[in-house]
User: Fold this.
Amino acid sequence: MKISINENISWVGKIDWDLKKFHGEEYSTHRGSSYNAYLVRDEKTALVDTVWGPFSDEFVDNLQSEIDLHKIDYIIANHAETDHSGALPELMRHIPDKPVYCTANGVKSLKGHYHQDWNFKVVKTGDRLSLGTKEFIFIEAPMLHWPDSMMEYLTGDAVLFSNDAFGQHIANEQIFNDQVVQSELYEEAIKYYANILTPFSSLVIKKINEVVGFNLPLHAICPSHGVIWRDNPLQIVHNYLRWADNYQENQITIIYDTMWNGTRKLAEVIAKGIMKSDAGVTVKIFNIARSDKNDVITEVFKSKAILLGSPTINKRFLSSIALIIDLMAGLKFKNKKAAAFGCYGWSGEAVKLMNEGLAEAGFAVLGDGLKNLWDPGEKQLAQAYAFGESFSSLRKQERSANETD
Ligand code: FEO
Assistant:
């Protein structure tokens, strides 16, 4: 399938409605995704990226119905991760001598994946490739989100091919940003940022400022997943700048797991205590064992503080809690407060260990947390309510102290 972006740029990718997990089983894609590839025609013709490997034959067949493959002059491989480079081996089987433009790290990664010595042309930021009347200007984008990542700007059309940056996992037959449900688009864009780009936020700000510093007009951003930003394309750039700047909303998220519902009862009462102390705050509660971990990570990303709850088991905490602590540690959230709580019957190590895990993951841990012996009765639930109130006011006190400093 081909979709015209304008008179000389065509989308030639694959819309994958069936994709429910990405990066193996690591990232949930409730709304599917797309692997965007683009054919850019001028006096010369360039192909920007390909699609995921399982769709190689379909991709090459479709491309052949659009253009004689031998008439493609340049292939641009912005990123070697296989959702974009996976169809290269099949394509290169037809046109083995065509030049493949990528970064130096792109060569390493493409060779590592496919063990082929294609006609690589290494490019750096500022290098240009003329198509005749227009040219590509290449921009290296290391760690957005792999060391090999790059983008390119097409003069004349004023289009940025941004690869993974500004992407979202959405399958939609209409591929422009003004053609999809806006709330769904926002949800998927922020989830993508939260789960993939958070650790690289300082680089996001630096790279955006570098590109903005070129003072180039911008008519559209063509990422490698999801919609093409043609309606006010700068909206996603502005959102990235907000999200990269230690983004948070007025939200506290409570994440827990439970064996016999004691820790669940604590979670629900703590939420009420927080709301008593801070009426304007949004409080969300997730049983992490029964929730989508990537959706919960998105909620953590939006939160100014989190609470983590687990009963003690085997002198530790429940395994679902270990998983979310590890995910949060990898994402390197900044400027967020936290505390732990949980029930125990015998040794009771979980709260202390969760506090340690939260601190190691970069959260500012407030207080020692709430340990509750046995199932919470009326008195203990009142203590949990007070814990919620005091967590909220401790967080407020800490914020005023920082503002005074
Ligand atoms: Fe869409 Fe980093 O691959």
About this structure: DSSP finds twelve helices and 22 strands in the chain.
